[in-house]
Amino acid sequence: MTPTRVSHCRTTMGITIRKAIKADEPALSRICLLTGDAGASADTSHDYGELIGLVYAVPYVKLPTTWGFVMVDDATDEVVGYILGSKDTRAYEKYAAEHWWPALVEKYPPALATRPADAHYMRLFANVPTAPEACIAFAGAHLHINILMAYQGQGWGRKLILTAIEYLKGENILGGGVWLGMDPRNVKARAFYERLGFKQIEGADENYMGIKFGVE
């Protein structure tokens, strides 16, 4: 797939795509929660709504090796979508294991949880899995992408992916590509990635997909 030229700060149809910053943390956490159930809202499943974002969104504006872009609704100045990731997954995992997860283990002991979804994430903090070797062999970079429901189906997911690829192509990424993991229940997401040229990663679970830069 050859990406079209997409500026790192672009405005079209009332939406601006810009680089993610630390001040976006509350919005990233909210979007992660509102898309955290296979693309639907997970809000009613949690008493601690911040937990999902502490795994899949917030660290990507706080830890080394990370990058990200957000969609901003120009009418409200609200962040309504994001694409986030790490340029070096193994370095990210190592730093998080030493500096990110331990504080969360201390802050959120599983004994606090009264809902299964909260207990799941509280236990996860103590045993976050590392990426499969097959994914690292494919590419050193990984990503997460989420867009609020009201802004889906309008081409913004594609624009975020193209923006990320344009950026990562200049970052000397190991393997010259990027990969992601997805919830197997989210069949719409799989179809979306396939249309953009993502392929299942050989040797990894079927829910990992990746794309090489400049490859159809």
From TrEMBL:
Q: Name one GO biological process term.
A: glycoprotein metabolic process
N-acetyltransferase domain location: 70-216
Q: Which PROSITE patterns match?
A: GNAT
Q: Which residues form the signal peptide?
A: none
Q: Give GO MF terms, alphabetically.
A: acyltransferase activity, transferring groups other than amino-acyl groups; beta-N-acetylglucosaminidase activity
Top-rank taxon: Eukaryota
Against InterPro entries, the record matches this protein to: Acyl_CoA_acyltransferase (IPR016181), Glycosyl_Hydrolase_84 (IPR051822), GNAT_dom (IPR000182)
How is this protein named in the record?
N-acetyltransferase domain-containing protein
Origin organism is: Sphagnurus paluster
